[in-house]
Design brief:
Order of helices and strands of chain A: EEEEEEEEEEE
Oligomer: heterodimer
Strand content of chain A: over 45%
Strand content of chain B: over 45%
Helix content of chain A: under 10%
Largest sheet of chain B: 6 strands, mixed
Radius of gyration of chain A: 13 Å
Helix content of chain B: under 10%
Distance between the termini of chain A: 37 Å
Number of helices of chain A: 0
Shape of chain B: globular
Largest interface: A-B, 25 and 22 residues
Number of strands of chain A: 11
Low-confidence stretches of chain B: none
Order of helices and strands of chain B: EEEEEEEEEEEE
Number of strands of chain B: 12
Distance between the termini of chain B: 41 Å
Number of helices of chain B: 0
Mean pLDDT of chain A: 94
Shape of chain A: globular
């Protein structure tokens, strides 16, 4: 099976802009989780989607949002970008069961200038 | 909220030697999962090993094994016969088994492992 894919791999934006990142899970997986990785804060959970519904949300401002489509692909959007949003954004997929292991994509490196 | 602590920011090991990475966690739950993930310079997060809290037997995957001490809330990773390809950042992660808590992973800050020839 193909792994988790994320597009684009790299993005450069300026403050105030918005950005959309995409994640395609492993075939058959219905849950997608998003994480932000920064040198200062480490890995932090953003949100999880399961069957097109947000099932869990981390402690991030409302500028961070996401959605999931019927084919389980997920997008996350960040509006009004700030310098502090520069990070590696990772998504992970599972079948959605409590016993599952999360498998990660290669990440999208976002730089905000 | 559960917290995961990795007290060793950096570790070094010689090729073919054994190294142990430490991880402790804080939780009031009795049922949960613990993971070790490896993140090489490519930044791809790779699962190394996982442990179910209800299992007393320590998990093993080839050269990787864990020492899971539930009462002490300790979950260390032992890498035997270290190889140059083991050089990476290693993250310990906790995940609740309670659906009401969601299935988000709580990560430690990571341990950077250097493997020397």
């Amino acid at each position: 099976k193909a792994g988790v894919t994320q597009t684009p791999r790299y993005l450069i934006k300026t403050r105030g802009q918005q950005v959309t990142l995409s994640c395609s899970p492993i075939s058959g997986h219905r849950s997608v989780s998003w994480y932000q990785q920064t040198p200062g804060q480490g890995l932090q959970f953003l949100f999880e989607y399961f069957s097109e519904t947000q099932r869990n949300k981390g402690n991030f401002p409302g500028r961070f949002s996401g959605r999931q489509f019927s084919n389980s692909r997920s997008e996350m959007n960040v509006s009004t970008l700030e310098l502090g949003d520069s990070a590696l954004y990772l998504c992970a997929s599972t079948q959605g069961l409590a016993t599952d292991t999360q498998y990660f994509g290669p990440g999208t490196r976002l730089t905000v200038l | 909220a559960q917290t995961v602590t990795q007290s060793q920011p950096e570790m070094s090991v010689q090729e073919a030697e054994t190294v142990t990475l430490s991880c402790t966690y804080d939780t009031s739950e009795s049922d949960y999962y613990l993971f070790w993930y490896k993140q090489p310079p490519s930044r791809q997060m790779i699962l190394v090993i996982r442990q179910e809290a209800y299992k007393q037997q320590n998990a093993t995957e080839n050269r990787f094994s864990v020492n899971f001490q539930k009462a002490a809330k300790s979950f260390s990773l032992k890498i035997s016969d270290s190889q140059l390809g083991d050089a990476a950042m290693y993250f310990c992660a906790y995940r609740s088994a309670n659906s009401n808590s969601g299935y988000a992973l709580n990560f430690g800050k990571g341990t950077s492992l250097l493997v020397t020839p």
